[in-house]
Amino acid sequence: MTDDSQIEQDGRNGSELPRPVVKHRRFNASLIWLVPALAALVGLSLVVNSWLQAGPTITISFQSAEGLDAGKTPVKYKNVVIGRVNKIHLSADRSHVLVKVALEKSAQSFATQGTRYWVVRPRIGLGGVSGIDTLLSGAFIGVDAGDSNAPADEFKGLETPPAVNHGAPGLRFLLHSDDLGSLDIGSPVYYRRIQVGRVVSYQLDSDGKGVSLQIFVDGPNDKFVTTATRFWNASGIDVSVGASGLKVNTQSLAAVLAGGLAFQDPAGPHDSTPAPEDTEYKLFSDQVSAMAPPDGEPHYIRMRFEQSVRGLAVDAPVEFLGINIGKVVSLKLDYDEKAQRFPVVVGAVVYPQRLGNAYDKLEALAKARGENSDLSQLMGRLVDHGLRAQARSGNLLTGQLYVALDFVPHTPPVAFDPNATPLTIPTVAGSFDKLQEQLAEIVDKLDKIPFDSIGKNLDQTLAGLNATMKQVNGQTLPEFKTTLQGVQKTMGSANDALSSDSPLQQNLGSTLQELQRMARSLRVFTDYLDGHPEALIRGRRPDAKPIPDTTTPAATEPQPGSKP
Amino acid sequence: MSAFPRAAELGLISCHVCGLVCADAPDRDDLSADGLACPRCGSALHRRKPSSYVRTWALLIAAFLLYIPANVLPIMRTASLNDIDDNTIISGVVELWVKGSPDLAVIVFTASIVVPMLKFLSLGTLLMSCQRGSDWARPQRAKLYRLIEFIGYWSMLDVFVVSLLTALVRFNLLSRVEPLPGVIFFGLTVVLTMLASMSFDPRLIWDGRDSDD
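ok -> structure tokens follow
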């Protein structure tokens, strides 16, 4: 109200127009420059921040950029993003791709020599599935730090993830094998059926004659690998039929499918100091051969069999008194012009060390005698003592043969040349062959028996026997009958004579009574003489008054009888 | 004085809010005329917007400074099942173009790149020509200013797109859209350019040394 009236008044009083109200405001127009200053500050802080966070840029080469995406694919260490792929381009020679990665500032230590990079993609193998999360999130680049501090900005990416991370406790060992089998990078290494490591890498030997595998055994189990440890390929199933029945021996199912290694110390006393890193071992094909004592130097021997060796195959065992000392390596047919026969030349490799103590003793003995302790010399002595090779049947069902070196008694001595190379071991026919031969001989002999004439003779003999029997029946038997009758009569009279009421019997009885009496009187007489020896000269004294005595009348009674 | 007289010459001043014309303080010569208030509605009275050049320049420069991070930094993250995608304005436009929506690409490009650049250039031109007191193409410059005022807020399109998508696309694992710092800078740029164009007084165009026709 007051304002309005003021305006009205002012307007009227002044130049017919209202006067504005004068206020005193203090406003500094230059304060507006704070806004762009603030904006500049924000911009500057962003720049500084990004400059501070910018890490090194590295280049990694890969075989292919499959799954990699410029600007997106992260680089992860222990699942923490430490960088991102910036750019992907082909190398100048188009043989590989170059991936530029911007690492974060904090990941500077990954741009050093020895750092390994690989692409993590989903991998599905018999041993398991890995990188399954990358199915959804897309591939990323994995990192494993090295221990060098020398900076580097060019790296060669691995095509497969490294089996062992840097700095993991454990030891690496080197194995040599004839072939790789079903092993692969990452195949497990078992110790007492517990996985303690894995195969890290493998490559062909430079001469192409074997495979070298590098394995990594995790700590603290790496101390179980000793200098005497044996390694063997645990892939597959070991089925053996023994005296105790069927036996199936495997490591884990995964090892059966995907392959694996196992190691163990040999039984018995051995050196059990833990092996140092990068110790080299031989990889055996199975546990049995791994646990066998060391074979030592192989020796090649040759045997010449005159008979068929059907069932003898390469790799058939060579046994000495039942101990496996080697195996057959070759079978060749030969032709002998003189004998016009086809002998089979069997080559075998034997390991004398497998004889163990026996070989050592023989060797020592030979040395003590001052002889050459070479195998050929030893073999020569053994051959002199009847050592022969024999192809024996190892399995009656399948007819498989093995070569047995055995002492065969009563063999004709043979010429043995200990200096020949290869050493030729004399052979004898196999036990089965021998049996066959002997059976054939028996059959031959049986063949020679004149069964025809024997039959004829036997026929005649039987005819003669028949006539004789007739004669016996017709003449001899009636005679025999009368003889028997005579015998019967005689027996009857003898019976009569011996019966209790026969006179002979009675006479015999009385005679015996008389004899008894005589014996009694003789005793009385000797008794009397005993008491009265003078009676021999003076004669008998008159009897004393009869005393009632039972013996006296008895003693006196036979006197008249005794006199005569 | 061949043309119409100016208010200042007649000693008059009008209120921008209620339109009251009153007598100018005679002792004041400067154009800013600070400290006067409309006797009717109480709004500040000034012949021209106060310190228009300085404010406009300051805001324009601030907007331009913020426009750089707005373009460099990503404005939006699209996370789907197997992919995380951060897009700046330009990369978003390129992606739209490549993935078969050229029309959308053109719209976004216009709203996010063309319009802010146009504003910077136009306002800069207006400011410089007015400060020099040039009488070159005055009606066209006035038209240009009206155009800038009109299209100014359309630049917020990008910010709206991001905020709408962020609110709508929230299928946790399957797909997700998140705003990134770039969009804040872009929004600030747009707001500052609008403030700049508001603080510019178009009457300055006509304040030439020469009298207008």
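Residues 299-427 of chain A form one domain.
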